[in-house]
Fold this sequence. Notes:
Strand content: 35-45%
Largest sheet: 8 strands, mixed
Amino acid sequence: MFAISLGDGAELRPLEPRHAEEYLAHIDRGREYIGQYIALSDRATDLASATAFLQSYADKAAADSGRLYGIWTDGVLVGGVLFRTFDAASGNCEVGCWLEEAAVGRGLITRAIRVLIDWAVEERGMHRVEWIASSANTASINVAKRLGMVRDGVLRESNPYRGVRHDMEVWSVLAREWRERRASGR
């Protein structure tokens, strides 16, 4: 087991099926806030579904096609980041995140996603890292901007979510851009 410090009493750790009870309690605390733009809170409504969701990412990790990490502050799970998709053969992956409202505004997601992108680019040789978010999710779009990602475009009304079709923005950073940005200290 490993933990990577994110500063301010926060750490990034693998989020595994053994964390199902803790994960469900976290989702229950943040269900409404987390569920504004993503279906994550809809996928964990009881212990069995929370366990199944975490197991699906354990299976993805075993297949090298995705990974899931939790963000703990002072020992409490408050959010997470993930490789929603991870395709080593093509060199493309997609990162994503979620956070309880009480943990917003501390830079946790930006710091955690930096760890993921560094690993994907430097350790795994990924060429392109994507970030996909609802156009209405300003906080998520702002993280992509802080990470130095480029807005590739908008998939108009591509995501049906809770009875409404949402525009989805695609942002990305290429390995050479990421390395240049990191070398310049940004």
